[in-house]
Amino acid sequence: MRAFSYARAETPQAAAQAAEAPGTKFIAGGTNLLDLMKLDIEQPSRLIDLGPLDLRAVTDTPDGGLHVGALVTNTDLAAHPRVKADYAVLTRAIVAGASGQIRNKATTGGNLLQRARCPYFYDTNLPCNKRDPGSGCAALRGLSRTLAVVGTSDACIAQHPSDMAVALRVLDATVNTLKPDGTPRALTLDEFYRLPEDTPHLETTLEPGELITGVTLPPPVGGTHVYRKVRDRASYAFALVSVAAIVNGPDVRVAFGGVAPRPWRVRDAERAAAQASGEARADTLIDRAFEGARPTEQNAFKVPLLRRTVRAVLAQAAQEEQA
Amino acid sequence: MSEAVPARLPVTLTVNGAAHTLTVDPRVTLLDALRETLHLTGTKKGCDHGQCGACTVLLDGQRVLSCLTLAVMHDGQAVTTVEGLGTPEQLHPLQDAFIRHDGYQCGYCTPGQLCSSVGTLDEIARGVPSHVTAHLDDVTFSAEELRERLSGNICRCAAYPNIIAAVMDVHAGEGA
C-alpha cells in the first residue's frame, strides 16, 4: 500500500474543507477502499477517517419518512425496526449483498460510493478508462458477461455493484451532502450518479470535498416490497441482475441492479406497465426500460433474464398481496 | 519512486481484555497489528482482500474482517480474537463443539469460523435478518440461517457440514 497521511474528522464541515485538497479521500467502513488501495487502484495521499463523526443515527423525519446517517452500518440499517416494517425492500437488498462481516462494517455513505467490480478496473495491467482516463476499455471486446447492458458508453460498460442503492432508487431516496463551504445539498440518486459517457472516472456529481452526511427516505408508500437477486452462487456474490420492486395493485415501481452504471429506473416503463395486465406487465416494463440497451454478445442474456425475473417478482408480489 | 514514510501514530486497542498502546504506520491493518505487533497469530491472513473470512475477529462484539480495516481507525475499541474466546484448559463451547464434530481439517479457516460463529449467534439473537429469513420480524435459528450467515467464511477442506453441526450443537445447548 502506498504511503498516506491519516487524520480523524472532527466535524462534518471541517472534514469537507480538509478533503478539498487533491488526493484526499474519506474513509468510513473501509471495506472497499482498503481493498482498492492494496491493489494500487486507489492511491490517496491523505485519508480522513469519518469514524468520530456523529452520523450513526436513524431518525424519523417530520413528514413521516426516515433519515439515515451516513455512518449507519449496513447491518444496523437492515435490522432497524422501521426499515423492516416500512421499507422492507431496503432490508432485503442489503442482506442480499456481501457477507455478515462486511455488512457490520460497511456504511450507508460508503455503499453509495463503492467502485465498479469490472475485472478490467481491477486489473492494473490492462487499459481502463475508469481507472486511467483515456487508456481505453478492455472490457468492450473482453470478458463482459457480468457487465452493464444499458446506460453505457464506448468508454465504459461497468455496472454499479450496490444492492442497497437499487432499493434506495425504487424508494425515491435522496442523498444528503455537505459542501466544504457549509452548503447542504439533497440529490436524487439519478442526480447523484453520473452516466459514464466519455468521463467514466467521474462516477458522481459530488464536488471536491463534498461529504455525504446521510440518506433521506420519503414517507412509506405501502405495497408489497420485493428484492430479487440473480447471481452465479447462492450467497456472497454480486448480482448478474437484480430487481427491486414495490407493488401496489396495478401500480408497480421497479429499479434494476447489475445492468447499468447506476441503479436503473424508468418511470415511463412503470406507467406503461400499470396500463398492462397479466404477463404483458413484465414484458411492457422490460421492453420500455431497456429500449436503449446495447448488450455485448456475452451479456445479451441479461435482458431475457430480467424479463423472467420481473415475471417472478410480480408473481411473488401477487401471492404476498393475497396472503 | 521514493515515498515518504508516513508518521507513526499512537492507537490504544483493548485486545482480549488487555489494553495495548501501539505506535503504528497508518497503513497497518488491524490484522497485521494483531499478528505482527501483538504476536497474536491465531487470527489468520488468508486472501487479505475480504473474500475468505479467515481474518474475522470481534470488534466491540461484532464480527468484522480485520484485513479490511486499519488499526488506527479503532482507537479505544475492544477486539476479541480466537485467543480470547477460550483457553486450552477451558475451551469456548464452540471450540469444544468444533473438536467433537471435527469442524476443521487443515484448521486455517477455524479461527475465523469460530469468531464468525460467535458473532452470528449474537446477530440471530438480536433479530438481525439475513437473505434467507422468511419473515423479517421473526428471525429464528436454523441450519439454513447458519449456512447463509457463514457464507463469508471459506473452508477449502469443505468441513462445512461439521461446522454447521458444531454450531447447531452449541445453540441447542444454550437453548436447553
Short description:
Chain A has 323 residues and is α+β, with helices and mostly antiparallel strands. Chain A has 13 helices and 11 strands.
Question: What does this molecule look like?
Answer:
The complex is a heterodimer of chains A (323) and B (176). Chain A is an alpha+beta fold and 323 residues long. Chain A has helices spanning 12-18, 33-38, 74-79, 81-86, 88-95, 100-103, 108-112, 119-122, 164-170, 189-192, 267-275, 279-289, 302-322; strands at 5-8, 24-27, 46-49, 58-60, 66-69, 174-178, 184-188, 211-217, 224-230, 241-248, 251-257. Chain A has a 5-stranded antiparallel β-sheet with strand order 4-5-8-6-7. A 3-stranded parallel β-sheet of chain A has the order 1-3-2, with no helix packed on it. Chain A has a 3-stranded antiparallel β-sheet with strand order 9-10-11, with helices on both faces. In chain A, α12 crosses α13 (302-322). The model of chain A has no long low-confidence stretch (mean pLDDT 97). Chain B is of the alpha+beta class. Helix content of chain B is 31%, strand content 14%. Chain B has 5 helices and 5 strands, in the order ββαβββαααα. Chain B has helices at 30-37, 93-100, 110-125, 143-149, 160-175, and strands at residues 9-15, 18-24, 56-59, 62-65, 78-80. A 5-stranded mixed β-sheet of chain B has the order 2-1-5-3-4, sandwiched between helices. In chain B, β3 (56-59) and β4 form a beta hairpin. In chain B, α2 packs across α5 (160-175). The mean pLDDT of chain B is 95. Chain A binds chain B through residues 1-6, 27, 29-31, 34-35, 38-39, 47, 49, 51, 75, 78-79, 84-85, 88, 91-92, 95-96, 98-102, 104-105, 234-236, and chain B through 3-7, 9, 26-27, 29, 48-50, 53, 56, 59, 62-65, 67-70, 72-73, 116, 119-120, 123, 126-131, 133, 136-137, 148-153. Chain A: It comes from Deinococcus sedimenti. Chain A: This is Oxidoreductase. Chain A: Pfam families: FAD_binding_5.
